[in-house]
Specification:
Blueprint lengths: L5 E4 L4 E2 L1 E4 L4 H13 L3 E5 L5 H12 L3 E6 L2 E5 L10 E4 L4 H14 L1 E6 L10 H9 L4 E3 L8 E5 L12 E4 L4 H10 L9 E6 L5 H13 L5 E3 L3 E4 L10 E3 L4 H13 L9 E4 L12 H8 L2 E5 L2 E5 L5 E2 L2 E3 L7 H7 L3 E2 L2 E4 L11 H11 L3 E4 L3 E5 L10 E3 L5 H7 L11 E4 L11 H8 E2 L7 E5 L6 H12 L2 E4 H14 L9 H9 L3 E4 L2 E4 L2 E2 L7 H11 L2 H12 L7 E5 L2 H5 L5 E6 L2 H14 L6 H17 L12 E4 L5 H15 L4
Helix pairs in contact: 1-2, 1-3, 1-6, 2-3, 3-5, 4-5, 5-6, 13-21, 14-16, 15-17, 19-20
Length: 672
């Protein structure tokens, strides 16, 4: 997951490949709560790992449920089975509407004392209609902040009036379907002696999400009847019973981004389209009907029980006018697809966008305009006209409003025909439903190599370039290449193979270098299956690396290997010839220096911290000798690139040096 302040996407040109989607958030949190309310232990497979499911799991533990996380999406939930939840309890629900709303209803009926709160945005999301419906039953719920919004206090136990179950419970259906879902999941807890009825006031929005709820209730032994989606009846004698094992479908809403990707992106390397695994045309999720909208815009979509195949059909896409009540979350993706359509796309019946993680109607309008689109925003509709021409597209920094769906759908704007980069602010917000979204996107997206940004940081030994480069890469979410490590690893591989590092063995060492099975992962370095992080950081390894780097055939062999590190979304490379030889067209080159005395002091501190004795005078002499050797070698001598910015780090901390490089990089970006 990208935990960076922002993520810059270079212009993307094509996409092809297979995507395995994570589990559905809507299904995951419903299943967790139903399992928690049931008799017995439920084995939940393919559970979504996300912020929203995490807060639900934490809450269930606090309430006394058995929660056994086995890894790889497998969780065992031992339900309350009629027992009272642990009380009193203070439950933090983050920004998870699929957690706080059904939990509020269930706890209000089960009895006890609870406080439910969340992040500031959660305290702006309405819950008043659900609370009023529960108060009709006699539940005692108090607002701890603004009326109609969390945080809440629930108090229903001994000494309070009995629940009033004779009359139908009335709830509005035109604000959020989660209110009705919460009641449908909670009322079976008190339907032992009589049928209980819910009447929907007004039009019920997002019926497909209620369909999911009813399907899952049936899996846990509750057969709810409904009359035209306006009256729902929970039969007397209802009792939750674990199905034993249940699988969570992949998220159809998340599928929308890759359905759209297949519709807008050309193929690559002789391959066409995107294959999606984990959800198919027979999904119980309403958002699978996004397929119909994508087809209407020109996409070619095929599918089976657990897969979808999408390819570009009509191009440009066709503008559509669509009532989106049946796909409220996925409809946001259509708004970005509209950027690639001919004409104006109109999305209607989307007033529910305003009470989601953010006011999505306003957010989509603001961010689409940044890209150059014409946008008309109404109370419950959005009209999107794409930029009039390629020249009218603009590079944009997309504000994501801590909303995962804003971040994911706007990533598709990186395929713009103008070849412009795009910035996604706060990319980690996708953790709500799809923590690895960007990694998944980059695995199937393609970009021209020249468009993938590279920052080169060259400099002499012990100048701090590795530390600075790693810090810059982490801040930007870019890949990191320690080219010096490649030479150290090559030297280590040569020694392990019994080769003396000399001109006589140049061809053999070069052959080793061409096949070097090296991997950088989490700050560690691997050679084949062996970790060599520490082995390549000795003084001897450094001297051997300097000797290896003087062999022309070895340097040539490593060039292709180094080019292979230039991958989406970008690269920070440190070394001695990154900006002069390996990536001469890099948009930012930095030559990091420090005095020999300063570098010797740094190296001395490193060695002493590892318990290795050393003398500063000897270290300085070694560094000066290595500098002379590196500067005088015939192939790629250590010199700054002509367009490199020079940075003397003698008086700077590594953080200060990294901040300076990041400042220079920001100045290169086209975002205001």
């Amino acid at each position: 997951m990208f935990a960076t302040p922002f993520l810059d996407l270079p212009p993307l040109t094509a996409a092809c490949g297979t995507v395995q989607l994570p589990g559905s958030k809507s299904i995951s949190n419903r299943v967790l709560l139903l399992a928690a309310l049931s008799q017995g232990t439920t084995e939940v497979h393919d559970l979504l790992a996300s912020d929203d499911t995490r807060v639900m799991l934490d809450a269930l533990r606090q309430l006394g449920c058995g929660v056994d996380e086995r890894g790889n999406g497998l969780v065992h939930i031992t339900g309350l089975g009629g027992a009272k939840p642990r009380s009193p309890a203070k439950l933090f629900m983050g920004n998870a509407g699929t957690a706080i709303r059904p939990l509020t209803a269930a706890l209000a009926l089960l009895g006890g004392e609870y406080e439910l709160s969340g992040v500031p945005r959660m305290h702006e999301r309405p819950i008043g209609d659900l609370v009023e419906a529960l108060r009709q039953l006699g539940c005692q719920i108090e607002y701890l902040g603004n009326d109609g919004y969390p945080p809440l206090r629930i108090q229903h136990g001994a000494g309070l009036p009995a629940l009033r179950l004779q009359e139908p419970i009335r709830v509005r259906g035109d604000v959020s379907s989660q209110f009705l879902t919460a009641l449908l999941m909670a009322l079976p807890l008190v339907a032992q002696k009589q049928d209980l009825a819910i009447e929907v006031v007004g039009e019920l929005i997002s019926k497909p999400y209620i369909h999911i709820t009813l399907e899952l209730l049936a899996r846990f032994g509750i057969a709810v009847r409904h009359e035209n989606w306006q009256r729902f009846t929970i039969p007397a004698g209802s009792r939750y019973q674990s199905p034993g094992s249940i699988h969570v479908e992949a998220d159809a809403s998340s599928a929308s981004y890759f359905i759209a990707l297949g519709a807008i992106a050309a193929g690559a390397g002789g391959q066409n389209g995107i294959k999606i695994l984990g959800v198919g045309l027979d999904s119980i999720q309403g958002d699978i009907r996004f397929v119909e909208a994508a087809r209407a815009m020109g996409a070619r979509v095929e599918g089976g029980p657990n897969w979808l195949q999408i390819e570009r059909g009509s191009w440009p896409l066709k503008a559509i006018e669509l009532d989106c009540n049946h796909i409220p979350d996925a409809a946001m993706t259509l708004a970005v697809m509209a950027l690639y359509a001919e004409g104006t796309t109109t999305l209607t019946n989307i007033a529910s966008w305003r009470v989601k993680e953010t006011d999505r109607l306003a957010a989509m309008a603001i961010e689409l305009r940044k890209l150059g689109a014409g946008v008309e925003e109404g109370a419950d509709y959005l009209r999107v006209t794409p930029p009039a021409s390629t020249a009218d597209w603009r590079p944009a920094s997309i504000h994501t409003y801590d909303d995962h769906r804003v971040a994911m759908c706007f990533s598709l704007a990186a395929f713009n025909p103008a070849g412009l980069p795009e910035r996604i602010e706060d990319p980690k917000c996708v953790a709500k439903t799809f923590p690895d979204y960007f990694e998944t996107l980059f695995a199937v997206a393609r970009a021209d190599a020249a468009a993938i940004p590279v920052i080169c940081i060259d400099g002499p030994t012990a100048s701090g370039k590795g530390t600075v480069a790693a810090a810059v890469a982490q801040q930007l979410g870019y890949h990191f290449l320690d080219s010096g490590a490649l030479y150290r690893i090559t030297a280590l591989a040569a020694v392990q193979a019994g080769l003396t590092i000399s001109a006589e063995n140049e061809a053999s060492i070069a052959k080793l270098a061409r096949q070097l099975p090296v991997q950088f992962e989490g700050g560690r370095v691997w050679l084949a299956q062996a970790e060599v992080t520490d082995a390549i950081r000795t003084e001897e390894a450094g001297m051997n690396a300097s000797r290896v780097s003087a062999l022309p055939l070895v340097r040539k062999a490593l060039i292709a290997l180094q080019h292979g590190f230039r991958r989406l979304p970008g690269l920070v490379a440190d070394g001695r010839d990154m900006g002069t030889v390996i990536f001469p067209s890099a948009p930012l080159k930095v030559f990091l220096t420090a005095s020999a005395e300063c570098r010797a002091q740094r190296r001395y501190k490193q060695l002493i911290s590892k318990g290795i004795s050393a003398r500063i005078s000897d270290l300085r002499a070694d560094l000066e000798a290595r500098d002379a050797r590196d500067q005088s070698r015939v192939v790629a001598p250590l010199v700054p690139a002509q367009d490199a910015l020079q940075l003397d780090s003698s008086a700077l901390t590594a953080s200060e040096a990294a901040a300076q490089v990041l400042g220079w990089w920001q100045a290169h970006r086209p975002f205001s």
